[in-house]
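User: Assemble these into one structure.

Assistant: Restating your components, then the assembled model:
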Amino acid sequence: MENGATNGNSSEFFNLKEMPHIIRALDRNQKVHENILSVIGNTPLVKLTKIPKAEGIQCEMYAKCEFVNPGGSVKDRIAYRMVLEAERRGVLIPGKSVIVEPTSGNTGIGLALASAVRGYRCIIVLPEKMSDEKVNTLLALGAEIIRTPTEAASDSPEGNIMVAQRLSKEIPNAVLLDQYNNVCNPLAHYDGTAEEILWSLDDDVDMVVIGAGTCGTISGIAHKIKERCPKCIVVGVDPHGSILAQPEDLNASDVQMYEVEGIGYDFLPRTLDRKVIDTWIKTDDCGALQMSRRLIKEEGFLCGGSSGAAMWAATKAAKQLKAGQKCVVLLPDNIRNYMTKFISDQWLEARSFKPIPKNNELWWWNIPLLENIVPKTASLTINSSVSDAIAALRNSGSSVVTVLDNKGCLTGVFTADNTRKRLANIPGSSAEDLEKFVVKKIYKVDLANNPTLGAVSRILDIAPYVIVVNTESSQSIPKIIGAFTSDDLLLFVSGNQPTLSTNDSLSSKIQNGNVAYPGQKSSKASSDPVQPVQANSGITV
Ligand code: P1T
């Protein structure tokens, strides 16, 4: 028992006192915290090892681990700071005031945390893009949530900023702390985050790499670091599709959706000071999210997507530093927010950020999806009523009805599941227009890209149906083929066991483009040459 291993024959408890002990140095400053808000900040600075080595970086790299904050992100700092200041000025009164804030979620979680502890009603206005994990955390903290369309511009009355402004005027005792204009946002980092980084590295930092949203983090840290360590290069990280970076991204006017949450905007917040930012690096989803997965797997940092964007940019920027110099990259939030998003391999594959896994065991895995096994769906226009949509769903016998906009393009789907959810959980929703019932986050495959049944099966791991379209024809509007479910895949697979002697001969015929599905009865299938599988998964989301 000397090595601490269990003795299979003994039922006695261990002699703990006699074991070899590892006692970590204790933080002697704080024995007990008054409440969870006083745990915010003082986050660890941790050396990065494997990724810098793999990327051929000479300098030392450190991660500022903001994901360990109690609410899970760097934004806890500013939320608490804005609340404290508003209370000090008498603007916020516990038990009376209502906090209303537009946010990509993390500031909302920080405010909901502060509201739970200090006694405020809290209303969070959040774009649809943001993860359900953030929504569930907010709800658990007692916040109320209003969702706004992701595509709405920041100055549109439908967008989260304008909706929050309107609500703050309509709701009695509402207070909009306004992270985009509130000095406490950069100040929390000037006084806190930057001081911590400087203390950890004895005021000797050569580069900081920080993602830009409201830009409070980067502007606040940069101001303090430039005062105390003027040599430090400040690198801002901004996704393609945002206009924060300088020089401006020429393509930013083409509205470009990106998946990474929390960074990038279509306006310049007052909390951005471009003067203190030396260089900007633009990032894309694929590089950012793959890097987040590497931070988790190779370094053990359970962080989110904007952490990957910052780290991806840092691996480029830090190449200019020499051995012995120090680069700090800030990792803003934690993995919890993204469990059903980029933490899922299938989610990454559906967006072509990761290849579809091979599967040589299943005869059908590499076979392309053909039109004739996809059940047709009924279509409705967006101007139809909800009762029309319910009737269409019932009459079609399908689980999905496709909904077209006024130009005839697919705008989303109407499903029994979502309709029930809305009617059951949102008071007054029975009087709403069809628009409100339309599910816009859908997985689509385009037959023009020859998606394989394997690729479709991977999507069906994370979605109840896949909408099948075909953009091959010369028409500008993609043709809607139908909706494909696990039932349809199993029906096809079980009714079409290959009669060919080996899987190899089947797949070689597929590669030669001269085989239709085994057992296929439709004439369409035999006239449709099967294309070799391509690298592109053919899936859009
Ligand atoms: O807002 P800023 O200090 O620039 O931090 C950018 C940022 C980076 N990463 C994540 C995951 C974030 O949530 C943010 C900013 N978040 C908000 C603006 C918000 O409302 O949560």
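Residues 75-176 form a domain with the Rossmann fold fold (CATH 3.40.50.1100).
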